[in-house]
Write a structure and sequence with these properties.
By secondary structure, the chain is mostly beta strands. It has one domain: Jelly Rolls, CATH 2.60.120. Helix content is 7%, strand content 40%. The strands form five sheets. It has a seven-stranded mixed beta sheet, with helices on one face. Strands 2-20-17-22-15-14-13 form a seven-stranded antiparallel beta sheet. The chain has a four-stranded antiparallel beta sheet with strand order 5-10-7-8, with no helix packed on it.
């Protein structure tokens, strides 16, 4: 089975500040992760995070040889761990013979060493949409599902500042052990559009956002770049943005939406952020 995979090389901020809108999109935005009946992946040089989108239909899908070749091992998780969140219909993942049922907004963690992995939809008329992140690992931790009810729920923001939202922590040290991968989901309340503000940096880790549940005629303006030299990307539903450690990452939509955030790097402290004063943004 063929896996479509591309490589995203790292960019220095001095390069990004000279880029056109099209060049920024080419280097930081993944526009076509989700294609029905396909496995699409992007291997990034930002903490070696790999992102993938899988939509199984009538038959199951699995990773092809191309993805193992890209990471330089005989199979994807030989030296890696994997996390996923399902943003579509009910699905299942079969990993080394064990079946995991994954409903909408449920997550799955697969530890290093998991070899045979396949993905299925319960109903091809309402297919699962598996958003996958994989990062290098140094130890094997137990594979397990994390339902939305098992995730840590945080109520953040305020309607007065248009950023009232629920943040769910799935792959987090207080939920389960992982080597370095963190994943969660944030859903904005009606009438709120800002996904975070004040903006922040964490020079020790990169981050990626997958935006979804954006209406067809709507979009999110994703802010990126150094605080003193910001730029932006227009992002549509089910598109992902890679954020280097030197870049802020926040945005506002033309309406409410949801997004999945993930991080890889030096530590697993969710609160390890360097906030940027609002007056310093340019």
């Amino acid at each position: 089975m063929t896996t479509k995979i591309e490589t995203l090389h790292a960019v220095h901020y001095t390069q990004s500040e000279r880029m056109t809108s099209g060049e920024l999109r080419e280097n930081f935005l993944m526009e076509s992760l989700f294609v029905a009946g396909e496995v699409n992946a992007v291997y990034t040089h930002y903490d070696r995070l790999l992102l993938a989108g899988i939509i199984p239909l009538a038959s199951s899908l699995s990773f092809g040889e191309e993805i193992a070749k890209t990471v330089g091992t005989s199979f994807l998780l030989e030296r890696r761990e994997l996390g996923l969140i399902n943003i579509g219909g009910a699905g299942r993942v079969i990993a080394d013979g064990k079946t995991y049922e994954i409903g909408f907004q449920d997550a799955l963690y697969l530890g290093m060493g998991t070899k045979e992995i396949s993905f299925e939809s319960v109903d091809e008329a309402a297919p699962a949409k598996f958003y996958i992140n994989s990062a290098p690992a140094h130890a094997t931790y137990p594979s397990r599902t994390v339902s939305v009810t098992e995730a840590i729920e945080n109520n953040l923001g305020d309607s007065a500042t248009s950023n009232k939202r629920k943040l769910y922590q799935y792959l987090h040290p207080d939920v389960l052990p992982t080597c370095q991968l963190l994943m969660g989901l944030t859903r904005l309340e009606g009438g709120s559009v800002w996904n975070t503000m004040p903006a922040h940096l964490h020079d020790r880790r990169m981050e990626a956002y997958l935006y979804f549940e954006i209406p067809k005629e709507s979009f999110v303006v994703h802010l990126m770049g150094r605080p003193q030299a910001t730029n932006h990307l227009i992002v549509r539903s089910e598109q992902a943005v890679v954020s280097p450690s030197w870049s802020i990452h926040c945005g506002a939509g033309t309406g409410s939406y949801a997004f999945i955030w993930s991080m890889a790097g030096d530590n697993q402290s969710f609160k390890d952020m360097d906030f940027v004063p609002m007056g310093d943004l340019k």
